[in-house]
Amino acid sequence: MALDRWISLIILMITMAYGYAAFFTLDVGLPPFMQRNAIWPSTFPKVLAVLAIGCALIILLGKGESEPKEADIDYRRLTDYNLGQALLLLAMMAAYALMLRPVGFLISTVAFLTVSAMVLGERKLQYLLPIAVLATGVVWYLVQQVLGIYLRPLPYFLGTGG
Amino acid sequence: MLEGIMIGLSTAFTFSNLMMVIGGCLIGTFIGMLPGLGPMSIISIMIPVAITIGDPSAALILLAGVYYGAIFGGSTSSILINAPGVASTVATSFDGYPLARAGKAGKALTVAAISSFCGGSIGAVLLMIFAPALATVALLFHSSEYFALMVVGLSAIAAFAGTGQVAKALLMTLLGLIMATVGEGALFNMPRFTMGIMDLQSGFGFVTLAMAMFALPEALYLVLDPTRSNNETGGEIKDLRITRAEAKEIAPVIGRQSVQGFLIGVLPGAGATIASFLGYAVERNIASKEDQEKFGKGSIKGLAAPEAANNAACTGSFVPLLTLGIPGSGTTAILLGALIALNVNPGPRLMVDQPEIFWAVIISMYIGNLVLLILNLPLIPYIAKILAVPRNYLIPFILFFTMMGAYIGQNNATELLILVGLGICATVLRFADYPLAPLLIGFILGSMLEDNFARAMQLYDGIGFVLERPMTMGLLGIAAVLIILPSYRARRARLRAKGVADGD
């Protein structure tokens, strides 16, 4: 079975769970006065669930086989590509998300930019570090000072940094 | 009217006001390039500055410059790194990014700048002439028509799908609509489908989803396949100029989409997003067979259409604001706030009581457009140089900016985890050749669609409104045709490929 059918199967299961929630659990706590309305919170989701299940079934059981477009990535040979780098970068992003609050914006961003560039093969730290520090500083200044959106600059034990 | 134009011109053409508009354009362009900061947020940031100026005309001129600058800046990030930070520039990235990848980033930005300029200018002229008349027409649109209009917009997505892909595009649209129902809606005071997760209480963030659907998979593709980032030109910027033939090609597109975009923009609540999607879909459907093939792969028509429509719609959204005092979009709502703070009351009396304000707004929109074009055309080669940044630096920065976009909107680190998760899903979907744009469009229109549907249902106490309102029925009919037509065409093509004779 091709990947797109597997995906349609997964989507089918998601929409079925969604449909179950829409049909059977969503209206349980509906106050009586709202039950007199022409539209319930579950009306629209019910319609969507039915339509989506239909669509997913069409793809799952349909005949159409799509060929991979040229110049795009062929998932059947995924290991031929730099899969490791991509996964490492995703892990970096997740780590960044978790570090942003406790470690503060400045340190985590510099670390993120430097390490991701090194994951990609950059070795010239003498350029990389100054660029990362400068970019972090500029973005922080813009977002925090000019736009007034709060970003905690320093680790949590060093205060809030105004 | 001529007298009014003269009043407007004389207010706008002072040295300090021109400096305002230039400054506004520059600020707007550069901040607008950051994904996640759209015109709405930038204008709201600039309001305190504008109010301290004191003079309403000068303040409006500054804001108009910021507004247009921000729109252009948003298109820049869509074109260069496939990161549309605002809903209305999503359609820009469909063709703008492929153009940039083909080494024609300079040309793409030039086309975008010129189409936006034309769209905005034509919109301003139309606004001048038709504002009072259009205001009454816009009031004829009730929630049921809005609902139908959005169904048309969603069905037009079938236009984005290639042959045999209609089911996939529809499924993605439905998935987008489903994602839009997560969280607490405006009409029902109850959270839906949050699975008890607090962070989903307010639903998925638009910027998060846009970044996860477009920018992140693209960045991952660049990582996976290093040959992708070395485009043939080696980062050199060529083809900045538009040839005469290309100008001829896009001129009618810009003309049509400016008018259509303006008319859609006039409807309160429809706005620039729908205008840009519909503009793209319409142009794709009426283009010739060869041109249709190019859409989505770097067609300048496909880039010009949403850009012109988007800007014309932004101008059009000033019609209900200035004539009725109804803000039709988030941005105009913020502008309304600014106007009230400046002691100007938009409404039917504005044109009579304070004609100088009314005309200053229109003229300042026009000047904002013009200055933006003059400022940005020389800047384009430098902006396009972003793509010449070495890959090892570019990719971490793209990832960083996508995360910043998602983070500063919500100020919530969980948003970043959601971003990464959705980004992985989107990449897998892209492997399997599922179109991602419909999902995002469905998500954007989803809440509006449901709100209007619910309102219509409540007003007519049931589904009867479809039959009672001919305009609704007409629009829904168009939608049905839009869905059925591509699959019918695909079926015909399949039959023909098999050698079955046409049954016409």
How does this model look, in words?
The complex is a heterodimer of chains A (162) and B (504). Chain A starts with a helix and ends in a 16-residue tail after the last helix. Chain A has 2 domains: 3-67; 81-158, no CATH class. Chain A is 64% helix and 0% strand. In chain A, helix 1 packs antiparallel against helix 3 (43-61), helix 4 runs antiparallel to helix 5 (105-119) and helix 5 packs antiparallel against helix 6. Chain A has helices at 3-25, 32-35, 43-61, 83-103, 105-119, 125-146. Chain A is flat and about 65 Å long. With 162 residues, chain A is mostly helical. In chain A, 24% of the residues are buried. Chain B is an all-alpha fold. Chain B has a domain at 2-142 and 204-412. Chain B is 75% helix and 1% strand. Chain B has 21 helices and 2 strands. Chain B has helices spanning 2-12, 15-32, 39-53, 56-81, 90-138, 143-155, 166-180, 206-224, 244-266, 271-286, 289-294, 300-316, 318-324, 330-341, 350-353, 355-384, 391-410, 414-431, 437-460, 465-468, 470-498; strands at residues 183-184, 191-192. Chain B has a two-stranded antiparallel sheet. In chain B, a hairpin with a 6-residue loop joins strand 1 (183-184) and strand 2. The longest helix of chain B is centred in the first third of the chain and has 49 residues, at 90-138.
Rg of chain B, Å, rounded:
22 Å
Overall pLDDT confidence of chain A:
81
Largest sheet of chain A: none
Structural class of chain B: mainly alpha
Task: Using the alpha-carbon principal axes, give the shape of chain B.
Answer: globular
Major sheet description of chain B: 2 strands, antiparallel
How far do the termini of chain A sit from each other?
56 Å
Please, how many helices of chain A?
6
Number of strands of chain B: 2
How large is the radius of gyration of chain A? 24 Å
What's the shape of chain A? flat
Structural class of chain A: mainly alpha
What would the average pLDDT of chain B be, to the nearest integer?
79
Give the helix tally of chain B: 21
Helix content of chain B: over 70%
Beta-strand percent range of chain B? under 5%
Strand percent estimate of chain A = under 5%
Return the domain count of chain A. Answer: 2
Strand arrangement within the widest β-sheet of chain B reads: 1-2
